[in-house]
Design brief:
The protein is of the alpha/beta class. The protein folds into 2 domains: 98 residues, Translation factors (Elongation Factor Tu (Ef-tu), domain 3); 128 residues, Rossmann fold, CATH 3.40.50. It is built from 6 helices and 16 strands. The strands form 3 sheets. The chain has a 7-stranded antiparallel beta sheet with strand order 4-3-7-1-2-6-5. Strands 11-10-9-8-12-13-16 form a 7-stranded mixed beta sheet. A hairpin with a 2-residue loop joins strand 1 and strand 2. The longest helix is centred in the C-terminal third of the chain and has 14 residues. The protein is globular and about 55 Å long. The chain starts with 20 loop residues before the first strand and ends in a 6-residue tail after the last strand.
């Protein structure tokens, strides 16, 4: 039903919801923020009230059959309306396929069909130093977590309370400086921001793991026992981060970007191999059991 979100008719999200719901929402802002990267804001009080850090929604262009299926986008952040209640939801996406190409042409005032919030999201236990590690467009899953653990926002309906983190560091890797958009959002969330680029145009030259090596070598991460990592990005990058955290004895939560068709667990197109407690492994649905898993449990 994520891929079959209603193309018309009244919304069934007339009030704040604690679970996923369908909604037909208005686009209120839409702008490019980096190379082939856009930020879109929709008006959806129910989704804004219910979404937790790391969750996602399925988005579909209504009244169209091409592309037919909805696509998953991480909830970047939520914002209140004039009455102080959650009202708006932002998504950030990179243009790389038919859906995102069509979405980039959608002006404010048009509508989207939305199904969410979905997935388990991030909920790390109390920690002294939260280290956020993004690659590519992976920052989209991490901003709300930074804002929550900085004590700036309470998410969910009812709003959940989580302990503040003493320190949050955000490390972001990309191929070139042109791919970084709205970095100031993480600075405003209280993060210490570090960048890495393959071509050396911003921050450390190399991968985000090279950046982690440099920070660790300089003693800027602190004791491993006080650190926990949350990461999102391409699988190869997260696998490298998982190996790095394992080598340093640091727990890591990874948000998978597995392609999805339905978003609610009925199509089994988004399965990922996850280790079980007996040492074997089985497939788990990223949209239902994930997208966030213990990085050590993922068979990369």
């Amino acid at each position: 039903m994520g891929g079959a979100a209603p193309a018309g008719g009244p919304s069934d999200c007339t009030s704040a919801a604690t679970g996923p719901c369908h909604d037909r929402v208005a686009v209120v802002a839409h702008r490019p923020i980096a190379d082939r990267t856009w930020r879109i804001r929709v008006e959806s009080p129910a989704l804004a009230a219910a979404a937790l850090p790391g969750q996602f929604a399925m988005l579909r262009l209504p009244d169209r059959t091409d592309p037919l299926l909805a696509r998953p986008l991480a909830v970047y952040d939520v914002f209140a309306g004039p009455d102080g209640r959650p009202r708006y939801v932002d998504f950030v996406y990179a243009v790389h396929g038919r859906f995102t190409t069509a979405l980039a042409g959608l002006p404010p005032g048009e509508e989207l069909a939305v199904w969410g919030p979905l997935g388990n999201g991030f909920d790390p236990p109390p920690v002294g130093h939260l280290l956020l590690v993004a690659g590519g467009i992976g920052q989209t899953a991490l901003l709300a977590l930074a804002r929550e653990r900085s004590g700036l926002v309470r998410y969910g309906s009812p709003a959940r309370t989580r302990s503040r983190v003493e320190r949050i560091t955000f490390c972001w890797g990309g191929r070139t400086a042109a791919v970084f958009g709205d970095v100031a959002d993480f600075e405003a969330a209280g993060c210490e921001v570090h960048l890495a680029t393959l071509d050396g145009t911003a921050g450390v030259r190399g991968t985000v793991v090279d950046l982690l090596d440099k920070l660790a070598g300089d003693g800027r991460l602190g004791p491993a026992a006080a650190v926990r990592v949350a990461t999102c990005g391409p699988d190869a990058m997260m696998a490298a981060v998982a190996r790095w955290t394992a080598a340093h004895g640091i727990p890591c939560d990874a948000s998978l970007e597995t392609p999805m068709a339905c978003g609610i667990g009925i199509c089994f197109t988004c399965v990922a191999p996850i280790r079980d407690r007996d040492g074997g492994w089985d497939y788990r649905r990223t949209c239902v059991e994930g997208p966030v898993f213990d990085a050590a449990s993922i068979v990369w």
